[in-house]
Design a protein that fits this description.
InterPro entries: AraC-type_N, Homeodomain-like_sf, HTH_AraC. This is AraC family transcriptional regulator ligand-binding domain-containing protein. Keywords: DNA-binding, Transcription, Transcription regulation. The protein is of the alpha+beta class and 339 residues long. The chain has two domains: 5-203, H-NOX domain; 220-333, Arc Repressor Mutant, subunit A (Orthogonal Bundle), CATH 1.10.10. The chain is 55% helix and 9% strand.
């Protein structure tokens, strides 16, 4: 699994059009300098969550995500979304979304048919926390708008389930036009099974013939890169202890040239050093959660020259010291976290 994906610049333009400063959002989210000036904008799941949290905190509008998600204009959407709108029916659209979603985000879209209900939910594969509410609003609002638009208003949600409380019940029920279960065990959007095969008036076979091959090619390239990145991480996890990894040593382990490995990582929008840091962070969290390894031992196992270097890195990742993070995890496991 690659926790690195490309963010559509269309999203950023839409956010700017609605009056938010991208530079301010970048600072508030703690993103790298010139994040939005990249020719191709790549982010991790944690960076994406931080960005949307910053947007939610500063937009001053609880309906912001609903507004963004309700825009189904083709020129404002990613080819994956265009393919969904141009599908033959809701079943076809949901299958395309589930197939192509991982090209644009490490998110698994799950569609389950249970009797008279079709239940749609999602899972962020690399997340250590639930997504911000604004991201859930955008996703469900977009699927709802796509279904309504494609069916000319005939398809509407049967029910919405949200893990949050009912503070904005009237707003959300008014937007989705259906009952909402709050404080639910999951976030889920529910349609009727009979909606699945309702023909879409927006079906466009000619446009799909152009878009689908492009998306399939992107998916194939993504999966190829995923294999290389996953393998690199596995080698790093096996060889980090007491060593400072290099691109050359990893390329040798993988039986490929340094240039080839560099190119494959560049294609995925990640540098070798970023991959090393992601691996170190994953291992650090794992070691500290087990409770049997002290921070100074963790520093050695992660290939740091001294404990101070590890402490500085961990503070940069989590905002607190390794010891404080471990104590917080222990409290969470025992149900003692303050709310």
């Amino acid at each position: 699994m690659i926790d690195r994906f490309r963010i559509s610049k269309q999203w950023m333009l839409r956010i700017a059009e609605l009056g938010l400063s991208l530079e301010l959002m970048q600072r508030k989210a703690g993103l790298p300098e010139l994040f939005f000036q990249q020719e191709k904008i790549y982010a991790s799941t944690a960076e994406l969550f931080s960005l949307w949290k910053a947007i939610a905190d500063h937009c001053g509008d609880v309906a912001f995500g609903l507004k963004l998600g309700s825009d189904v204009r083709l020129e404002r959407n990613h080819p994956m979304a265009i393919a969904a709108v141009c599908s033959s029916c809701l079943r076809d659209a949901l299958q395309r979304i589930a197939r192509y979603k991982r090209v644009v985000c490490p998110e698994e879209i799950r569609v389950e048919v249970k009797g008279d209900e079709v239940i749609i939910d999602s899972h962020y594969l690399a997340a250590s926390e639930p997504p911000p509410h604004i991201m859930t609003d955008i996703g469900f609002a977009w699927v709802t708008a796509m279904a309504r638009h494609g069916s000319d208003g005939h398809i509407r949600p049967l029910r919405l389930e949200l893990t949050r409380g009912p503070e904005h019940r009237a707003l959300l029920e008014g937007h989705f036009g259906c009952p909402i279960t709050f404080n639910a065990a999951r976030n889920a959007l529910v349609f009727r099974t009979s909606d699945l095969d309702f023909p879409f008036y927006t079906h466009n076979e000619e446009l799909l013939a152009v878009i689908a091959p492009q998306l399939d090619a992107e998916l194939q390239a993504h999966d190829q890169n995923a294999k290389v990145t996953y393998t690199v991480k596995q080698v790093l996890k096996r060889t980090l202890a007491g060593r400072r990894p290099t691109l050359q040593s990893l390329a040798k382990e993988l039986a490929m040239s340094t240039r080839t490995l560099q190119r494959r990582l560049t294609d995925e929008g990640i540098t070798f050093q970023q991959l090393v840091e992601e691996t170190r962070r994953e291992l650090a969290r794992s070691y500290l959660q087990t409770g049997g390894i002290e921070p100074n031992e963790t520093a050695y196992l992660l290939g740091y020259e001294d404990t101070n270097s590890f402490y500085r890195a961990f503070n940069g990742w989590e905002g607190i010291s390794p010891g404080a993070w471990r104590d917080m995890q222990r409290k969470a496991d025992s149900g003692m976290v303050d709310h």
